[in-house]
Amino acid sequence: MSEIRIVRDYPYPRAKVWRALTDPELIPLWTATGAGARPEGFAPTPGTRFRFVAKPKPGWNGIVNCEVLEAREPSLLRYTWTDDGGGDDTEVAYRLEAVGDGTRFTYEHTGFTGVGGLFMAQMLGRIRRRMLTTGLPAVLADLDDDGGLRPGSALQTRS
């Protein structure tokens, strides 16, 4: 079985990191450095069924179906992840812990099986590393203390 595990430290409090990871308006801003997925129907509430919708690519319709399994603000979000076109039923977990004045974010995506799963884990791992190294830090830097984008931010939310 293959998995993705990425650990990043951010110099921001957990509440701010949680907001960037779970606010449906902010998620597409940091996923833009990957496939640019936006959540439809997402809320960090167990039982919520939602989907990520990205621009389709050859061999992929751009849709991933998910269900929130567990949410404990501001420390844990777990949800299922199933490609709309088939493939493994996998699970994603966001774990946030306070480290000094900042936050340690551990991203885990587990449940990939077989050769196809190994390929998918490698491909998604590269994309997630870029999103968590480039995309998420840019969003965090542009959030004010109330969790909104700072005036003049180059980042734009979709209304």
Describe this structure in words.
The chain is an alpha+beta fold. It has one domain: Alpha-D-Glucose-1,6-Bisphosphate, Chain A, domain 4. The protein is built from 3 helices and 7 strands. A 7-stranded antiparallel beta sheet has the order 1-7-6-5-4-3-2. Strand 4 and strand 5 form a beta hairpin. It is globular, with a radius of gyration of 15 Å. The mean pLDDT is 92.
Quickly describe the structure.
The protein has 159 residues and is α+β, with helices and mostly antiparallel strands. The protein contains three helices and seven strands, in the order E-H-H-E-E-E-E-E-E-H. 27% of the residues lie in helices and 36% in strands.
Structural features:
globular, single chain, seven-stranded antiparallel sheet, alpha+beta, 7 strands, Alpha-D-Glucose-1,6-Bisphosphate, Chain A, domain 4, 159 residues, 3 helices
Fold blueprint:
Blueprint: E1 2-10, H1 14-22, H2 27-31, E2 38-40, E3 49-53, E4 63-72, E5 76-83, E6 89-99, E7 102-112, H3 114-142
Strand order of the biggest β-sheet? 1-7-6-5-4-3-2
What is the count of DSSP helices, taking H or I runs of 4+ residues?
Answer: 3
> What is the share of helical residues?
25-40%
Total number of beta strands: 7
CATH architectural grouping: 2-Layer Sandwich
| Average pLDDT number | 92
The separation of the N and C termini measures 40 Å
CATH fold-type name? Alpha-D-Glucose-1,6-Bisphosphate, Chain A, domain 4
Name the helix and strand elements from N-terminus to C-terminus, one letter apiece.
Answer: EHHEEEEEEH
Extract low-pLDDT stretches. none
